[in-house]
Amino acid sequence: MDERMNGDPGGHIDFFEDPETFSYHEFLHQYMIGNTPCLFSSKFTRSWGSRKFWVSASNQPNWDHLLQEFGDATVPVANCDVKEYKANPKEQIPLREYIEYWRGHRENPHQSPRGCRYLKDWHMQREYPDYDAYQTPVYFSSDWLNEYWDAIAVDDYRFVYMGPAGSWTPFHADVFRSYSWSANICGRKKWLLFPPGHEEHLRDCHGNLPYDVTSSTLQDPKLHPNYHKCCPPIEVTQEAGEVIFVPSGWHHQVYNEMDTISINHNWVNGCNVAFMWRFLQKELEAVQQEIAEWKHTMDDWDLHCQVIMKSCTGIDYTEFYTFLKMIAQRRLDTLEATDADFPPEGPIVPGPRHARFDLQRIADVLSDLIDNTEFRKLELETFNPPPEEWLQRLKIAIAEKS
């Protein structure tokens, strides 16, 4: 293990060189449960198909291969030069059109009348399930989000990003306060990372988080009265082939310092599902405050709040319960399997030990969910099975298998 930091950071993150000496269980206890970022060397991705075929001999994006394989795909492209509600506006265009733009942007030293454009959040894996671009590293394989959304065939949280030097992502924390991992296929990124809680010092006098944490306006004490309390960001340079782990609630801002392609996943598991639950509670509170003046004039106000929350975040309390229930059922199925179904050694996820860990974390969150006032306002009699009955079943299973 080494340390990787750059510039004038507020700290460092651990850097792991060798896959042979870094175990899944070490990552689980020190980094997932510890909610601490780290960086993996290019050795962890050297066997990936994307590392072989998406990169040219000069270590640049292999546009010809990308066009041949995916040229007709429709991809989401953001304009980094335009701010729209704390983000960049996106349009859907063919990949071949984006690569034509990218080539011109690079040849005209990174200038274009169309601005700096960044292909973001492309669901490549969902659209091309048989294409062997990469294998999810075992450290990130306990992934409830994608396990759930794959099962219901609605969505996924696996993305490809492609952009020229100068493209960037504004200050944010990841969806549902999930973990994320991001692997550079080629190029270089600079990350500015802030530990959970420090983003509160960056809010302006109206309570809003900044769009750009490098803006000089943050140093105006009238606009940002608490900026002086915030620690400097942890600044990390991520090279080609390297993988960064960003834990729950770590706000960050990211720059492509070269033409860069990356693969990113967001994921939740037993280590951070409580972060997701706290995030949903805060989101509902924000919606309730926003439409509080209509509470006594609107029928089913509480239900409307859930609908608005789902439209903003992608999930409401009912679906969160369904999500927990489905993962719990799968872990119960794992425990009911025989030991012969699992190899005797290795970081198996989810194996029996991991299944028990997951069930205990689900039971903890489910217990809190059942006691939640807003959850109890839902039509719980329509839930199958009823939440309290399901919780009791989990507790019995955990006790029997301990």
How does this structure look, described?
This protein has 2 domains: 2-195 and 231-267, Cupin (Jelly Rolls); 273-401, no CATH class. 34% of the residues lie in helices and 19% in strands. It contains 12 helices and 14 strands. The chain has helices at residues 24-32, 49-53, 63-70, 95-107, 124-127, 144-152, 273-290, 301-313, 317-336, 352-371, 373-376, 387-401; strands at residues 2-4, 13-16, 38-40, 74-79, 90-94, 117-122, 158-163, 168-172, 179-186, 189-194, 234-238, 243-246, 251-256, 260-267. The two termini are 34 Å apart. The model is unreliable at 342-348 (pLDDT under 50). InterPro entries: JmjC_dom (IPR003347), JMJD6_ArgDemeth/LysHydrox (IPR050910). Keywords: Iron, Metal-binding, Oxidoreductase.
Any key phrases for this structure?
402 residues; alpha+beta; four-stranded antiparallel β-sheet; 12 helices; 34% helix
